[in-house]
Fold these 4 entries.
Entry 1:
Amino acid sequence: KASLAHHRSSEIIGENARQGYLGGVHYDGECCLDDENPCVTKGPCYVRYKFNNKVEMMDIALLGIITTMFVAFMLVLGAQTFTSDAERLVLTPIQEMMDLVQRVSDDPSRPVEPKADGGGQYETRKIENAIKKITDLLRIGFGVAGSEIVRENLSSKNKASGDTIDLMNNPGKRIYSVFGFCMIEEFDHMTDKMGHDIMDFINDVAKVVHTNVNNWGGQCNKNLGGSFLMTWKVPDHFTKGSLNVDVSRIPYIAKTADRALLGFVKVVADLNREESILNYRKRKDLYIEHEDTGKLMPFKVCMGFGLHVGWGIEGPVGSLCKVDATYLSPHVNMAARCETAAKQWHVQVLCTEIFHSCLSKAAQKHMRQLDKVLVKGSATPMNMYTYDTFQDQPMVSKDSAEWKKWGDAGYVI
């Protein structure tokens, strides 16, 4: 009994346990009762037995503990894996979508940086990539002039319009800017000769114009066939919301005007340098008649440029069927009129007296006064200036060793 006291009932097999044969008692009716006289006295006898099953029960308990720990570990691992996958494939992409929309609403003109992993093939990543493409299309389609329209419609602070698109109720805003207007000369001739390939031509020219204007701080607003409207906006904090501003006294205006002039001069240089543009001179089907001799001459891509400074109303024009974000003002029209008038003086770059006064002193030394004219709608004569560009001269190729030498030396080219 003393030894049995250290065991549990489940650890004992025998008399007082459920296991065993007949409750732990074995009966034998033919057993011998007298050891001295075997098998003389016979009768029923029995044997009581008990077995110590503690070692087996310890093994079973240990295996149970191991099983419980394994199940717990798998549950924790499964929960962690599920949480990680849910966060990586669902929660994180959704949060990035929300952050993306917020960034676009804060600054629609800022390009969206693509992810390094390429977005993956999961549905949430595809949705995220779709949102990025949509925001890029908004940025490209509306441009800088439409930034306020996109911001107002995407901003969570704008609760008045709810889930509807509010474009036409956005009032125009007065801004100050350098306005540049440029047009491809003999564009009607190219449209007639090239037919459905005219898109390739206009996009080749647009690439040169947009790249150089953007590199020199300008923004591309709209394209009307063979003409382009460019702007170099003056930051709002320099004008402080004033309506009557002397543009020549605006801080930073000299740097802005210099960049506008350099941007257009770079366009002229690349029109005489880019291989895609020079190839049009080699096509005999594009030859054009000389205006004086009538002889067929190779077609050379040339552009005229007009520059002016003033205010403009920035806002949407159109309806919910189609909206253009653009600038409207007499100063925008003046830039277009300068480009048209450039042909009368047979120059490529024509700018107004106001634009000339905004240039830095170093830039003004390179300008040449053409004439003094009385513009329609104005009672005061105005000087007109040009920058001599010579569009038909050979230019150094960007792939040449000379170009790379200038670039390594740090020259502005």
Entry 2:
Amino acid sequence: MFTIMVVEDDGELRKMFCSALRDHGYRAIPAADGAEALNVMERAFVDLIICDVMMPNMDGFELTRALREAAYDLPILMITVKDSMEDKQTGFYAGIDDYMVKPVNINEMMLRITALLRRARINSERRLVMGDALFDCDTLTVTCRGETVELPQKEFFLLYKLVSFPNRIFTRRQLMDEIWGIDSDTDPHTLDVHISRLRHKFKDNGSFEIMTVRGLGYKAVRADG
């Protein structure tokens, strides 16, 4: 499941966008301004940001610059009431990936999100391949060398998140927030149990390996990498 953060100071609009995203199969995280968005990203992994321009504390342009300066390369879809070339230019120079003008057509927004995720090499068809292993989000299965293993939902999405970004280190907090939710009171040891189960199930797969990065978290690497 892909996570999209909606950064919008209009509460009703923020709620509407989040609801539409959930209806289309995404996990939605709300934030009221750029400052809150940065705080959220310290403890949660986000695949894409939908961001308003005019906001208190930190506006959309400032948020985009801060993220790009911090080496975040996730797609950013900017939404604003302004339609001038100057504002578009400011946004693209700041580092946004796409631009929509209010009032926003929800269907068009979903199409743009799909395109942005595809360009970011996140598999929008909910399938992913690493080596000989095929990961299918719709069936929660991993098929490797003719053998298909169906996983419990949380185990699958934990593995899928890791293999979606080979060699990228995810902190334990990021993975807990992503899979179990930011407000969950699940015992952090649960993550270790899930990782252990995945390693056991795929110990001889030959395509990928889940590695522990001491003091940081976990990452997935290609078995031949």
Entry 3:
Amino acid sequence: MFKHTFAAFAILLGFVHNSTHAAPATIGSCYDTVKLGDITPPALSRDLYVLVDQTMALDAKLQEESYQKIIQFLMPGDSVQVIGFSANAAGYYTEIILRGVIDARLPEDTRYAISKKILRQVDTCQKNQDSQVRTYTGKALLHAFSNATTDLPKTEILSNLSSVSKNIISQSDTPEKYMLIISDMMENSDLLSLYGGGKLENLNPARELEKLETKVTFEDMDQTQVYVVGGGFLNDGKYRSSVALKSLEDFWSLYFERSNADLRQFGTPSLLGQIGQ
């Protein structure tokens, strides 16, 4: 049904956003707009957190892939947040770009108890809501990608994951949680640096995690299922060995396990499967 490409969205929306910060777009529940009286609307069942690393320049193919993976995942009963993160340098901070929901639909037996007028309002609102969430997801990704820069000296993935876990994931009681991280996953901070010639090939993931435990508190990610697009990505034509990529994946697998999450797929750089499968 939704066959728009990410490139088509860039043209369709005319999205040119040069400011680093913008108020987050919010697409709320139709049940907050159309009142159902004493009927309790169905709750959301899944959260999707999309984290975009703005310290790397992702190529157009992977940008398109990221968009398509999200659109193919989303369905009624989902919430989505698109979050840009960077290096905590001046002008570059963690930024919620989009908050949106696609309402869970009313069961048939509940629909029979609601007037046709109210049902028409709900159905029309939810049709528009579904379209808007998908459209504004494209806009949010374009905003995040357009503000990316490779000029920043640090890449603070760990601190941003901790912040998202503490301030966003912990506040949600939705039963299923998913996270798509669009990043090369190459941490370069005071906590840990994965850069340097041959460093990944010689990385001891378990030892690095032990060191990390002396520096940070691991936030509980509430069994979030994690997917990565862009792992180990290099946009200069250079090559990362399979040994280096395996070490990188092993480290993050241990990190997420320690954070009560599950690294389900680690795209190096493409994500071959679908989110949630």
Entry 4:
Amino acid sequence: MRLGVDFGGTKIEAALLDSKGEILARQRVPNPGDYLAAVRAVADLTARIEQETGARAATVGFAVPGSLSPATGLMRNANSTWLNGMPFLQDLEAALQRPVRVENDANCFVLSEAVDGAAAHGRVVFGVILGTGCGGGVVVERKVIEGVNGIGGEWGHTPLPWASADETTERHWCGRFGCLEQWISGSGFQRWAGMSAREADEAAQAGDAKARVALDLLADRIARGLAVVMDILDPDVIVFGGGVSNIESLYPSVRGKLLPYVFSDVVRTELVKNKHGDSSGVRGAAWLFDAEGGASALMT
């Protein structure tokens, strides 16, 4: 049995998976937005899931909006800022009384899709989350590449490549300027396009020229960002998640724009939409442990 918890900014979801990846039970509760209350909510949610199934998972994996500092072991880089600086891993292990792994939610998304999702056939997989924020993750041979600094795949906090003079932004919440998150996330798109990505997609399909131009520019900005990843990592598959990933026209549009930016005469990397959708967080968190409880799904 594998227990995965998707610790989101507004909700906490837990799911118990069997050895084949089938979800046996899942429940979600609102995230109280308070550190101690959230730890208690996780413990209560886990207890209810295990009571429902009559099974106890030996380990629990967590997908979180941030990461653990290799220097201090404390939470950092979370957009749920009340988590930052807290001993989240230690408090979860104390509350749940078993081994716990905490991993960035984007990494969990990619792991889920690389293990048994849309990118399961790829050896090297790069994952992109385009939702309220912009995240990324790297999985090689079904193992998350955290990196020595614990920031592997933090694509959303790199600058927009080949930026034009009018592609300037205000300071991002992370303290930097020009982050990709400000340009290609769902919230970023709405800021500069004046409409949500879903609204733009619907308007473009109805023939709205302004919406089509906005989506074309979005595709170009995504292509610029991915070209840098491809020059460095050259992945077999790039899998998309988040609300923006539901715009079907983006896939051929982004692919068509990659070649002028990539340092290659061919683009064979596949661009695919996720298979597991909102379930990727809990599924990826559950896959952080192998069947024997080891951390085989993590690499530095």
